[in-house]
Automatic annotation (TrEMBL):
One of its GO terms (molecular function) is DNA binding. PROSITE patterns: ABC_TRANSPORTER_1, ABC_TRANSPORTER_2. Gene3D superfamilies: P-loop containing nucleotide triphosphate hydrolases (3.40.50.300), Valyl-tRNA synthetase, C-terminal domain (1.10.287.380). Signal peptide: none annotated. Transmembrane segments: none annotated. It comes from the Bacteria. Residues 5-223, 283-499 form the ABC transporter domain. Residues 494-536 are annotated as: Disordered. This is Putative ABC transporter ATP-binding protein YheS. The gene is yheS_1.
């Protein structure tokens, strides 16, 4: 298993901030690694160093001679009036049939493949860039926040692509669900140190918290022992008979050291507005049509949202999710129909058109104090600012010098400190890291008001949503099922689309101009491989669910065994624990076998 790329003793600073300090990293040829860390920790800087676009102050980056990096470009590589097919042929030097075959894996066909690529949405353009990557046959993919602004369907297609990609990948993302679905290992950058964990992100986050809790307990014991020794020394050092004992205790005290607990800045202080719970209907849409002059996006909308619901707006990009949210908050006039809000409703909005209109004369702290409710103290403002990455001198920065991402976080902080009893949020997780997204989700779950939101982060949606509203094919309606059932329906549609596409590709394989005749056999093999791959992926998914269930059962049995005093009951628990442990071991071995396959 060759090492494709290696970092030895990497050091890098940006001003006073330490990004890398003695960093060590090895990426091998068939492992997909999820790369996480707080915003500003230096993840993008490390990626640029790996690519050779950024120099380390000390240390070295070593590339294997066979290394072929595929980097997902964030900039626009397309020429005016160029089609996706033209771009793929120009970028890769491959023939049209090969470019079309790879593009088909991302559902790029018809006008999406042959029309102007610049006319496509950001999500479809990302599909074109991914197809271009695959055509270059890389053995290491580097993806920096690949799911940003991708709709659910495109994210799932990207997951399918990555699971079928049998080479290495390094993926920076704040989307826990995406990392869990695609990466078998987790890399964290924190305070200049790189930590590689041989497991998925959920297991890593749990392990990290257990490690920190262990360090806290050890430190508490150490501090208690230090106090005990200090009291003995102070009491006995002046006494000639016990002075030697006091000196011995002093040496023991000098050896006792507490561990430094590497905890990132706390995000637990994130809270939602403090409001009183209410009942009944908070919003009613009747005969509503939404869109823009000359372009009706959706019509005949009859919808009710109840107080206390956390309604997730779902649908593919371009279907009208943001248009619906903008119409609800009256930043876009309805084409026809009415929207009625309940009595006493106070709306709080998080969307791009809001955070670009902040008062540029205010500082960060002044905006938060202005936006917060009367019960909010300055300490509350500082805590919220710190949770959303405004710390130390940053709280005195003027709004006019903030970046777009900083303005977005400031708007979110002000909103959460306010008094709104209805929050309308468009992509609230953008510009936030994994820990902050999790803390925001927890705050919204505890919130007593109503939330209407859209997000591309499936973990966030699953944590927060109580009901689902689907925007699709010019209509908006309540989806009768939870978010997991909606996910399953989209997965099924994509699986069926892939099956049909593979069948079509097989039938027409020998009719494509310029394609070698032996590719007909390759197409048959490809379809069979795809079917085997889907079968394997399904078994892996079921195994992951089984492993999670068995792991929970094992943990509960261990806890029960520690407190059980009845010998017979303890023996029964031990037998159950042995059986569960064996089942878990068998499932994990099968998972490893399939993952290698």
């Amino acid at each position: 298993m060759p090492v494709l790329i290696q970092v030895r003793d990497g050091h890098k600073r940006f001003g006073d901030q330490v990004l890398l300090e003695g960093a060590e990293l090895s990426l091998v040829d068939d492992v997909k690694v999820g790369f996480i860390g707080r915003n500003g920790a230096g993840k993008s800087t490390l990626l640029q160093a790996l690519l050779g676009n950024e120099e380390l102050e000390k240390g070295e980056v070593i590339h294997h001679p066979s290394l072929r990096i595929g980097y997902l470009r964030q900039h626009d590589p397309f020429k005016p009036d160029e089609s996706a097919l033209d771009f793929l042929m120009r970028d890769s030097g491959q023939p049209d049939w090969r470019c079309g075959e790879v593009a088909g894996q991302f559902e790029l066909k018809g006008d999406y493949l042959e029309g102007p690529v610049k006319a496509l949405s950001g999500g479809w353009q990302t599909r074109v860039k991914l197809a271009a990557l695959l055509l270059h046959d890389p053995n290491l993919l580097m993806l920096d926040e690949p799911t940003n602004f991708l709709d659910l369907r495109t994210q799932i297609l990207l997951e399918h692509f990555l699971r079928g990609f049998n080479k290495a990948a390094l993926i920076v993302s704040h989307d826990r669900a995406f990392l869990k679905a695609t990466c078998s290992q987790t890399l964290e950058l924190s305070r200049g140190k790189l930590t590689m964990y041989p497991g998925k992100i959920d297991a890593f986050l749990e392990y990290r918290e257990e490690r920190r809790e262990h360090d806290r307990r050890v430190n508490a014991t150490t501090i208690a022992k230090q106090k005990q020794l200090q009291r003995f020394i102070e009491k006995n050092r002046a006494n000639a008979a016990t002075a030697s004992q006091a000196r011995s205790k002093a040496k023991q005290l000098a050896r006792l050291q507490t561990s430094e607990i590497e905890v990132d800045e706390p995000t637990v202080c994130i809270r939602a507005p403090r409001v009183q719970p209410r009942q009944g209907t908070v919003a009613r849409c009747e005969g509503l049509a939404i869109g823009y002059p000359g372009n009706v996006v959706a019509k005949n909308i009859n919808l009710e949202i109840e107080h206390g619901q956390r309604a997730a707006i779902v649908g593919d990009n371009g279907q009208g999710k943001t248009t619906l949210l903008r119409t609800l908050v009256d930043s876009l006039a309805p084409i026809e129909g009415t929207i009625k809000w309940g009595y006493g409703t106070e709306l709080g909005t998080y969307a791009q058109h809001v955070y670009t209109s902040l008062d540029e004369r205010q500082t960060v702290l002044e905006h938060l104090e202005y936006a917060s409710d009367q019960q909010t103290t300055r300490q509350d403002c500082l805590a919220m600012a710190g949770a959303l990455l405004f710390r130390d001198s940053h709280i005195q920065k003027k709004v006019k010098v903030l970046s777009g991402g900083e303005r977005a976080r400031l708007c979110m902080a002000g909103l959460l400190l306010g008094t709104a009893n209805v929050l309308v949020l468009d992509e609230p997780g953008n510009h936030l890291d994994v820990e902050t997204v999790e803390a925001l989700a927890e705050a919204l779950v505890e919130y007593k008001g109503t939330v209407i939101f859209t997000s591309h982060d499936r973990h966030f949606m699953r944590r927060v949503a109580t009901n689902v509203i689907e925007v699709r094919n010019g209509t908006v309606k309540n989806y009768f099922g939870d978010y997991d059932s909606y996910l399953e329906s989209v997965e099924s549609e994509i699986d069926e689309g892939e099956r049909q596409r593979n069948l079509t590709a097989g039938k027409s394989a020998d009719s494509k101009p310029g394609k070698p005749p032996e590719d007909k056999i390759t197409a048959v093999d490809y379809r069979q491989n795809q079917r085997d791959q889907r079968k394997t992926e399904k078994e892996i998914k079921n195994l992951e669910k089984k492993i999670a269930r068995l792991d929970d059962e094992k943990r509960q049995l261990n806890e029960s065994l520690l407190t059980e005093t009845n010998p017979d009951a303890a023996l029964k628990l031990h037998e159950q624990l042995t059986q569960i442990t064996q089942e878990l071991q068998d499932a994990e071995e099968r998972w490893l076998e399939l993952s290698e396959f």
